[in-house]
Amino acid sequence: xHGYYVPTIRLVTRDPALLKRTxxxxxxxxxxxxxVPVAAHAxxxxxxxxxxxxxxxxxxxxxxxxxxxxAAGDFTSVRTxxxxxxxxxxxxxxxARTGQVLRWAxxxxxxxxxxxxxxxxxxxxxxxxxxxxxxxxxxxxxxxTTGAVDRAFKHSTNGVVNAVAMSKRKVYFGGQFTRFDGQRxxxxxxxxxxxxxxxxxxxxxxxxxxxxxxxxxxxxxxxxGFFHHLNGTNRSFLAxxxxxxxxxxxxxxxxxxxxxxDISVTRKxxxxxxxxxxxxxxxxxxxxxDGSRVFHRRFDGDVQAITSMNGVVYAGGHFRSICKPGGxxxxxxxxxxxxxxxxxxxASLTGSGRLTGWDPKLNPNVTDIPGIEAFxxxxxxxxxxxxxxxxxxxxxxxQRFAAFASVGGN
Length: 410
Prior knowledge:
Elements (H helix, E strand, L loop, with lengths): L41 E3 L9 E2 L3 E7 L2 E6 L3 E3 L5 E3 L3 E5 L15 E8 L2 E7 L2 E2 L2 E2 L3 E4 L17 E7 L3 E7 L2 E2 L2 E2 L3 E5 L18 E7 L2 E6 L3 E2 L2 E2 L3 E4 L17 E7 L3 E7 L6 E6 L5 E6 L4 E7 L2 E6 L3 E3 L4 E2 L5 E2 L2 E4 L3 E4 L22 E7 L4 E6 L3 E2 L2 E2 L3 E9 L1
Antiparallel strand pairs: 1-38, 2-5, 3-4, 4-7, 5-6, 8-9, 9-12, 10-11, 13-14, 14-17, 15-16, 18-19, 19-22, 20-21, 23-24, 24-25, 25-26, 27-28, 28-33, 29-32, 30-31, 34-35, 35-38, 36-37
GO cellular component, one term: cellular bud neck
Organism: uncultured Nocardioidaceae bacterium
Protein name: PKD domain containing protein
């Protein structure tokens, strides 16, 4: 697939048909625990491993806490590994150990874009107005075991929420909204995990573009999206703000060339999946301390999901080929000067940007398909969980959900 493909970015609308950004989703294996340690720089297998549940619609995002994996998307049912069909309204939970579909099944009247799981509950964000019949506008917290709505945690926006990140005391939200809990905001807001209204002290603002992803680290909150300015300061597509007051961290200034759809932050690097209408698709690595560029690899389509595991960077999206190192793209996204290799919707790179041999071949004979929407990693067990809109991986059945196991060095 060449050129710009409209990702599942959610616009300011109450129309459930308009989905969210390129967020994410992920998969589970029936056996996630490995008995042996995983070597550094180990790539995962090209073929999915183990029996996993099937989803009848897109899986946008998955998170895990302990043995439980939570998934959100546009599915209405999940088929278990023993063939049973279970009704689910876009939310489901699985056992990471056995692959069993659990009873957790909250009901949302719209679409959930992202999840965050913690001891106090599972946070849901997206484009919805009720959860289990209770009024909850775009933000909710439900019990991690029963799925019951937390009545003490009640917030609302006038737009949509694409991203959620947590610290020990706060929950951070990003999306496309100008009000949160009735207070003026510019696509970003934070609340106490105890449930109080939006925190007045944390109110960084983007006036012209939505936020697609957030990652909270000790150094601050990394913000990704469509913007060119934060707090009136020149910051295009990727920025770092203080986690207490929302001020721009001026020492971090990235040179990401296009819209950022997803980010992954490690001890030393920030990896960004990029997209956009003109020459946008690719994977970018910058230094975590100051944003200086480490590498930029161009793909012929958007990178909707990105992560790093055991020293390897994984990129997923709707691309079909990787441009040669240093190559450019046409306005439609095609590689100028040739392609280094074909990679159908999934690829991996070393920390220096060199292409590895990982080639999952997701629906290679289909042109118009969303591909990978998200990754979730179980680093210690060497499992990479993948979700999205694909239905096959290297010729094997993989209904929008698959797990890949580490097999050795690259």
